[in-house]
Design goal:
Blueprint: E1 2-8, H1 15-23, E2 30-36, H2 43-52, E3 59-63, H3 69-79, E4 84-87, H4 98-102
Parallel strand pairs: 1-2, 1-4, 2-3
Length: 103
């Protein structure tokens, strides 16, 4: 299983496109780990709503004190349970076969 880690800071305006590109993967054995690096926008509310929905994949959301991307990535590694680890920036769009290609 993949752990797809998305570190972010104040990206409520674009992270849904990133998340949707992850959810549209042809390879389906993954979890999504969102590490919010102390956002001051509505990112936390956005993910509270997303997590409350019926998702076909696990989503882990963790808000941490702002410390920079490297600390957010390290927290994502700590939270991840997958065998493989994949970092996706919060404004990236993945091709539909990205995880399958890696496998």
């Amino acid at each position: 299983m993949f752990s797809v880690v998305i570190p972010l800071y104040n990206k409520e305006d674009c992270v849904l496109k990133t998340l949707n590109s992850v959810l549209g993967q042809s390879y389906g054995d993954f979890e999504v780990v969102i590490v919010d690096d102390g956002s001051t926008d509505n990112t936390e509310d956005l993910f509270s709503e997303i997590i409350s929905e019926d998702n076909s994949f696990p989503i882990i959301y963790k808000r941490v004190e702002n410390g920079g991307k490297h600390r957010a990535v390290n927290k994502g590694v700590e939270l991840a349970t997958g065998e493989l680890f994949f970092i996706v920036d919060s404004d990236d769009i993945l091709p539909d076969d990205a995880l399958e290609t890696i496998v």
